[in-house]
Structure formats: C-alpha cells, structure tokens
Amino acid sequence: MQDTRAGGAPVRLRIGYLGKPPHPTFFELARAHPELEFVEIAPADSGEAMRAPLRACHAYYVRASRQELPKPLHVTAEFLAAVPNLLAMVSSGAGFDPIDLAACTDAGVPVINQAGANAQGVAEHAVGMMLGLLKRMPETGAAMRAGRAQDRAAFMGREITGRTVGLVGIGNVGTRVAAILRAGFGCRVLAADPFLDAATVAERGAEKVELPALLAESDVVSLHCPYDATTRGMFGAAAFAAMREGAVFVTTARGGIHDEAALLAALESGRLAGAGLDVWVDEPPPVDHPLLSHPRVIATQHTAGVTDESRRRIARYAVEAFADIAAGRRPPRVQNPQALDRYRARWAAVFGREPGF
Fold it and tell me: Which terms does the record give in the GO molecular function aspect (predicted)?
C-alpha cells in the first residue's frame, strides 16, 4: 500500500545511478514503490556520454566515495548546469564528498545523505581499533610473523577502562562511540564539536571541550567529523604535537582531515603510541605507503561501515528518501535546507502541482 501522507499520489520519479547500489536489497525494497523508475548510467570514456541519461532524470543516486565515482559524475556547478532538470541528489552513504553542497544550494537542489544508517558499524570499528592499539595487537602480530617474538612483557599493553577518550565530532557515530565507551568501559568521554552546545553534547554522552583541551587530556583521540573546508588538514604536525605523549589516534571519518606524513612522523618520534586508519587520501593507498607497513598502525580500507546490517539500512533509507521525493514530501536528512524553497518551486514546475510541505 502506498504511503501518500501530506503529498498526494506519488508522481513517476526517474532516478539515475552508476554501478551497483550498496546492498542488493535496494532494488528489492524499491519494488514496493512502482512510482520509482531507475535509469542505469553506463561507464563511458566521455563525461558527456555518462551525463546524457541524467538529463531525463529527476534525481541522482550519487556514490558516496569521491574516488569510486568518475570525475565527470561529481556534482559540481558545471555538472549541475549540464543536467538542469535534476531536482535532488541522494548520496549512497552518510558522506557526500563528491557533491558540492554550495553549488547545489545555489541551484535549488537538496542534498540528502543516509546519516545514521551505518553508525553502529562504524562505532564498533572505531572502538575495536582503540582496543587493538592499546593492547599493541599490530606490533605483536608483526613481531611473530617476522620471527622476532620476545619476552611478552616487551609488549605491555594498556586497558581502555577508565581512560579518557576524545571525540572530534559527536554526530550519529560519535554518539554511539560515546555510549559504548561509557557503558562498556567506564571511560571519560570528551567531545569537541563547534556545532553543538554543552547541554546537547552531554545528552549525547560526553563533556564538551574545545579542541586544545581535548588533545591535551585524551588517551585516545578519535575523529568523527565531516570532511570539508573547515576540517581539511585539521590534524597536522601541530595537532599531533599537542596530543598527550603515548596517546592513540583513530579515524573512521575521511581521508584528508589528517596529514598522513605528519602522522607518520608522530609515530616515528614516539609521540603517538599507535594509529587506527580506516580512511586515506588515496583509497586504497599505494601498497608501499609507509603507514600501511608500520608496526603500530591498524589499517583498513574504508570498511568501518561496510557491514551487512549497515548496508541494508543504507539501502532502506535511500529508497524511503526517493519515495518521499516522489510523494512530494519534505526529503529526509537534507544537508542544505536553504535549497528547499527553490526546490519546492522546481518540483511544482516539473510535476504540475505543489509538493505537500
């Protein structure tokens, strides 16, 4: 049965996409919404050839990783000018790196992500890295594989229980990390988040502090902030130098927020005891990347949120978002609400009636 609350009968919505959706259940769930029509974009040598099918579409299902999407299909001002009929951009994940948010706002195009869908998977991954690094698992494994096993006391680890963990950003993932650390290990959790007040941070399970205090007081620092102009390169030599000596650094956020060369230097100098890296500037990183082979690094290939459960939720969230657009409802999780006034007018012009919000 169709859900048409507040929006009237759904319109026929054509959606362009490239490659497989994040989970096979995406199309299974979409079958319950016959108003959704999917247009596959075939890979081509020409950006024009790949963009052509999108001119007949109302929405674009955008791959969330900037390095998994051909440059001509990144959503820029030039892209939007070439496909002016697109009404909305829906990311295939919580991130939306390939989408220029300001350009979409200027064009009256809402950007919808799937924030929260993979929060549990990413949070578990981040906490798992913290535990592995404090117990020096990468070092002991590397030593045994190299035939350099030593007296076990040479790999003396630390317990996370009762330690201070600093979260840079406390959105969906950070909130879940805080809950796990507090309930499971009795940690003191600090959070630096410029968008939230102290009361909101407290509701999410942490103490609000500014970044310098977080770096100075935390045994573990974990990044859960978006990648944008304000966070690009935020963790460089100065930030690592400001961290507590022997602290552990973890990131499941985005590559480019931390400077990889500066991190390597901080590990080599002994300033940091270890690093857990799920995200990289180049994904995957080159096989000779020095951080990949470092004995005090846990390295994964942007897989923190790649769980069956997370991907199922991402698929469901996306289908529901497209169904809301087709029914003329306010799209969920809009990252640029300033675009909505113009979006309403554009939606009405395309479908011949006012949307229901």
Answer: NAD binding; oxidoreductase activity, acting on the CH-OH group of donors, NAD or NADP as acceptor
